[in-house]
Design brief:
Strand content: 5-15%
Mean pLDDT: 83
Radius of gyration: 27 Å
Number of domains: 3
Structural class: alpha/beta
Order of helices and strands: HHHHHEHEHEHEHEEHHEEHHEHEHHH
Low-confidence stretches: none
């Protein structure tokens, strides 16, 4: 019932989104026309609008409809939905420009497109904020200790797109008979049982047709990170996953990875000319260092970096193990004698990592994700630590922005799992933005 209720506004919001795009697209033509002294008249603006917009209308309709399917999910994270909308609109915006070029209908100025984008984004955001406040709150009865109930209510209220109204239990005793009577005579949409005794509640709520939620850990008796429920025929199957099941968001993530990696490669082209020359002039050996690393779900791939060590440095690593400044399986040494003077500069500002943009284009890596480990490191992982391989490795991560080599391996692993458990497009954007000052500071880079 809750999923259907949360999805009631799906079509209304999609139509609203289309109306916003129609309005802002036309308005942007008018605003742009104000700067052309030789052009005036509403008929001219209407003519320009009608020549191009019908060709791109299907793109925006599909984009918004797919985006607003998220409303059918419960619970729905407010910030994640806003970020998803921004990304979806941006992809639709770029696709529409491509379509206009393809159909030879592109005659809009870049200024007009800029106006269209900056007006549409806040309007799309605003309509979602209005919707989230206008949708009637879900009336929830939380069953558990006072502390459990308060913690759950606070966590849910801070992030949910749809508001909830907490129903207070007024009785002095909480016998099954009294609660059954209470539920029959009260308007309750949702019951959340946080305690151990959930079986009787399940029967009561099933009989009354009220949605019941139970923390999965209460049933399986161990921590669970990602789980989905599928129905095959008349059999309900509970599946446990190693990583996030946000398939559409992951598709957007990996699509943006390739687009941004391509852009960054073009922007960094001068560095790809200068750095190899400097490396070649200052030390012998190949410019690009290649190494086998472990990626998503244990798949091995060839990892690229600008060479920062003297040629053949790997052969003397075993003689330096006593100087390892990291714990457990990772080897890091602050004053590593194998690193060239140029290599120290490249490492300090992470310039040696630039060739990994090619790994991103190939699909071996992502811009954001756990750093890819060596096969021999993975062999020494404890079983629970291998879960960091459930997300595609990245150029930057939480470890990168929180101190890099100043952080011990055990904390590094926990940060990677924190990233996997809380992954969203918004989190990726925050990490990318924080990577810039982290790189310039050079903290923990050696």
């Amino acid at each position: 019932m809750l999923r259907q209720r949360a999805g009631v506004g799906k079509w209304a919001l999609t139509i609203s989104d289309i109306l916003i795009v129609v309005f802002t697209y036309f308005l942007s033509h008018v605003i742009r026309g104000l700067f052309d002294t030789g052009i005036s008249g509403l008929d001219i603006y209407i003519s320009r609008f009608l020549r191009s917009f019908p060709a791109i209308l299907p793109i925006y309709f599909i984009t918004f409809y797919m985006n607003n399917l998220k409303l059918e999910e419960f619970p729905l994270d407010r910030n994640e939905f806003h970020m998803r909308t921004l990304v979806s609109f941006t992809l639709g915006f770029l696709a529409s420009i491509f379509m206009l070029y393809l159909l030879k209908l592109f005659f809009q100025s870049r200024f007009m497109l800029f106006i269209f984008y900056i007006i549409a984004v806040p309007l799309l955001y605003g309509i979602r904020e209005v919707l989230s406040r206008k949708v009637p709150p879900i009336r929830v009865l939380i069953v558990g200790s006072s502390r459990q109930s308060e913690e759950f209510f606070e966590k849910f209220s801070k992030t949910t797109f749809t508001g909830i109204e907490r129903i207070e239990w007024k009785g002095k005793t909480q016998s099954i008979a009294r609660i059954k009577e209470f539920l029959k005579n009260s308007h309750v949409d949702w019951v959340v049982v946080l305690g151990k005794d959930y079986r009787e509640w399940m029967k009561i709520c099933t009989d009354l047709g009220i949605t019941l939620s139970i923390p999965l850990e209460r049933i399986v008796k161990q921590p669970v990170f990602f789980a989905t429920l599928e129905r095959i025929g008349d059999i309900n199957i509970l599946s446990f996953h190693r990583g996030s099941q946000k398939h559409l968001e992951l598709f957007v993530k990996y699509t943006l990875d390739k687009i941004l990696a391509f852009i960054f490669l073009i922007m960094a082209f001068p560095l790809f000319v200068v750095i190899p020359i400097i490396i070649k002039l200052t030390s012998k050996g190949p410019v690009i260092f290649k190494q086998v690393r472990v990626g998503l779900n244990g798949k091995k791939f060839v990892f690229y970096k600008f060479r920062t060590m003297y040629h053949g440095a790997d052969r003397i690593r075993k003689f330096l193990m006593d100087f390892n400044e990291m714990d457990r399986v990772v080897f890091k040494m602050k004053n590593d004698p194998r690193i060239t003077p140029v290599g120290r500069i490249l490492r300090r500002f992470s310039l040696d990592e630039l060739p990994q943009l090619w790994n991103v284009l190939k699909g071996d890596m992502s811009l954001v994700g756990p750093r890819p480990p060596l096969p021999e490191e993975v062999e020494e992982y404890e079983l629970w630590e291998r879960r960091r391989l459930s997300m595609k490795p990245g150029l930057t991560c939480l470890w990168q922005i929180r101190g890099r080599n100043e952080i011990k391996f055990s904390e590094w692993i926990k940060m990677d799992l924190e990233y996997i458990d809380n992954w969203s497009l918004l989190l990726d954007m925050k990490i990318l933005l924080k990577t810039i000052p982290a790189v310039f500071s050079g903290r923990g880079a050696y």
